[in-house]
Every structure is written in C-alpha cells, then in structure tokens.
Amino acid sequence: MPQRLSRALAHLSAYKRLIHTSRPSFNFIGLPDPTSNLRPIIYTTAISSSSPSESKQHPYSLREFSDDTVDHELRWKLHREQLDAFNHAYWAESNTRFEAAKSSVLAALPPNAPTEAHEHALSDFYKKWVVQERVRQDEYAVELRKRTSRISRSLLKWDFKGQRKG
User: Fold this and answer.
1) What is the pLDDT of residues 66-98, one digit of tens each?
2) Which pLDDT score is estimated for 160?
3) Which contiguous run of DSSP H or E holds residue 87?
C-alpha cells in the first residue's frame, strides 16, 4: 500500500504545474538598513522602483476611485509598499534620535570614567528613553494596526471579488 501511495504522489508531482493556479512570485529580503535596522523586502512584483527611504505615494489618491474601478491587486500592493515605507521611516527616525541621545550621555562622562560609570549612565539612559518614548511607541503601534487592517480588508475584498467572478 505505501508503494502505491508513493507512486500516486510521484504521478501527481509531475502535474503540479497544471494544478497550480496562480502566477508564482518571489520576494527577496535585503541587507539590514544601517539606520532603521530593518531588512527591506524586495518585491518582484513591485509597482515602483524607488528606494525604501522615499515616500511610496501613488500619483492619485485611491479614494478617488469607486471599488468597481480600482484594481484590488494594485490597491493591495500600494498599501503593502506604503506600510513598508511607514515602518522604515519610523524606525530610522527613532534609531537616529536614540543614537544621538546615547552619544550625548556618553560624551558627558569624563574621559577616564570607570566601566561602572558607563554602565550606570547607560542604564539610567535606557530607563528614561523607554518612559520618554512610550507615547510615540503607542501612537506608532495604533497607526501600524490601522494600516495593517486596511491591507487585510483590501486583500479580503480582492479575494471576495475574485471568488464571486469565478
């Protein structure tokens, strides 16, 4: 019996191209950005070729079109790229401010300060940084959830319309 099953599976694998219904796409992961520390996703089906630091804005507002005239795949790709740009911009700005503040704390120490003084200064800095950044981090998390749910709704709407047509 297991031999029959393996032959059947081998037979099916020869026809997997016929079974596969969607166009395969490949996304790549880039090297970490030195400022944001995020590894950018390089989409092979990208709609724009701009760098992650540039704003990913479509020349038209997607709200200008009714749901019947907008290509839902394009809407999903635009939202996905805008989310990536949003994440990159937030973390690049946050990390830049963090490193500048950390450098100023370390620069305030005497040149011959013992290791314990460095550790104590950095420990105090980290505590204060977390408290100071709490509101910004919470605002970022709320906006990230909004944008992610917008992508999910767009994807579900696209999938639902595709199911109705088929």
Assistant:
1) 554 457 677 778 888 899 999 999 999 999 999
2) 62
3) helix 72-107
| Coil, strand or helix at 73 | helix
Tokens (6 digits) for 128:
């204060």
Cα separation, 111 vs 118, in Å, equals 10
- CB 148: neighbour CB atoms within 10 A? 12
Q: Which residues of the chain have pLDDT under 50?
A: 15-20, 46, 48-56, 68-69, 166
Q: What is the 3-state secondary structure (H, E, C) of 90-139?
A: HHHHHHHHHHHHHHHHHHCCCCCCCHHHHHHHHHHHHHHHHHHHHHHHHH
- List of residues 6+ apart from 48 with CB closer than 8 A: 56, 81
SS3 8: helix
Q: CA–CA separation, 38 vs 92, rounded Å?
A: 9
Decide: 79 and 150 in contact? Cβ < 8 Å: yes
Token pair of 119 as six digits? 């550790």
